[in-house]
Amino acid sequence: MISPVYVIERKRDGHPLTEDEINYLVAGYAQGDIPDYQMSAWAMAVFLKGMNSQEIAALTQAMIASGDRLKPVGDQPRVDKHSTGGLGDKVSLILAPLLACADVHVPMISGRGLGITGGTLDKLEAIPGYRTNLDEAAIEHQLREIGCVITGASDRIVPADKKLYALRDVTATVPSIALITASILSKKMAESLTGLILDVKFGSGAFMQSEAEARTLAASLVSTGAKLGLPTSALLTDMTQPLGRMVGNANEVHESCDTLKGGGPADVRELTIELCARLLVDVKKSYNLDEARKSLIQLLDSGHAYERFEQMVLAQGGRLDAVPNLATMNEQFAASSGYLQSMDGQRIGHSVIALGGGRKFVGQAIDPVVGLEMLVRVGDKVERGQPVVRIFSSKSSDREAAVAWLDDAFCIGEMPPTTVPLFQPL
Ligand code: URA
């Protein structure tokens, strides 16, 4: 006879759980039959003892089964990308309409900022009127008409994860490879995808600080996806410095629009093209990566991707021409001359939160017009007194707090540093 205590004990003592035991616990928790205190004890046991690949796959399936799955519409491949989050990561805003132009469907269910990393929904809500609460019928309709959607999860998409994630957040059980894998994959698999790519970031501005940790998480995500029949691939990507120049919300929308029109920073463009190209090859829309990259470049440079973005925004009620201007700008200057060795992503992230561009507490309203513009990149030669970052602030007290975070965020030294590649395959 299974009971919550029995399942907790088995995991505490390092035994693998059966599919039945995992289903029992997840379904019971989602339905409110198993209380938070027992689920917390179980989550801590998983954090400490880990799970094998069969258990992770069973946990992912049990989480999906706690809610609804989106219904596929049409014969197009259905693809999506998940990023583990970073500073200036606006790739989703560009990737979804770009892939829709390549005749695949992108039913992207996104999230809000977590810790120091920004969230796609917060960025899109810098567009006045943009709705992030589409229901399943609206998602299906928009996929048929436009081919891409970026919206938030309804309460019916993986409700077990909503509850469990909130519990993990306050019980020090977030950084478990098994729990992260099931959490991410269950939400993506509930979109009924035929291809998924993971952008697993590492560095000071990322959830995973080291390349080794990022590799372990990426490998777990890819193998669990494959085990559950979803072709999944991953890139390990650089988060030792923000992606692109802009970190914030409205400013990231502007930078995404520039990229969608064929311009934008080289790293944003290159990473987005690479993620899309790999997906197109995985779902057999392109024969090889070179062919895929060429067609994606054409879709950006011709303005087609931007047109598709305009259509998506309009369909979701947004007014792109009404994106507000940025707040008052001040510059911060290099304290010495030399080569920029590194940036402290944590400090940069906290400075954006101090400005009101991220959250200090659950549910805090975001100020869309604040943020940063990075004027230098790791490896650049800088002169003392040269501006290194622009700060957009709505209040002088917030600006002072942001400046305090940024003061030690730029490390300048005498020798050119070794830099990290923008992306590497798993
Ligand atoms: N992001 C998620 O969606 N889930 C996790 O567990 C961690 C990061």
Brief summary:
The chain is built from 16 helices and 13 strands. The chain is of the alpha/beta class.
Would you kindly provide a written description of the structure presented here, covering whatever features stand out?
With about 425 residues, the chain is of the alpha/beta class. About 45% of the residues lie in helices and about 15% in strands. It is built from 16 helices and 13 strands. The strands form 4 sheets. Strands 1-4-5-13 form a 4-stranded mixed beta sheet, with helices on both faces. A 4-stranded antiparallel beta sheet has the order 6-9-11-7. Helix 2 runs parallel beside helix 4, helix 4 crosses helix 9 and helix 9 packs across helix 10. The chain is globular and about 70 Å long. The structure holds uracil. The site of uracil has 6 residues, from helix 9.
List keywords for this structure.
426 residues; four-stranded antiparallel β-sheet; 16 helices; binds uracil
Cα gyration radius (Å): 22 Å
Q: What spatial order of strands do you see in the largest sheet?
A: 1-4-5-13
* Helical proportion, percent range: 40-55%
Number of strands: 13
SSE blueprint and pairings:
Blueprint: H1 4-12, H2 19-30, H3 36-49, H4 53-64, E1 79-83, H5 91-101, E2 106-110, H6 120-124, H7 136-145, E3 148-152, H8 159-169, H9 177-189, E4 195-202, H10 211-227, E5 232-238, E6 246-248, H11 250-260, H12 266-282, H13 289-301, H14 304-315, E7 328-333, E8 338-343, H15 345-355, E9 371-374, E10 381-382, E11 387-393, H16 396-406, E12 410-413, E13 423-425
Parallel strand pairs: 1-4, 2-3, 4-5
Antiparallel strand pairs: 5-13, 6-9, 7-11, 8-10, 8-12, 9-11
Helix pairs in contact: 1-3, 2-4, 2-8, 4-9, 4-10, 5-11, 5-12, 5-14, 9-10, 12-13, 15-16
The structure holds uracil (URA).
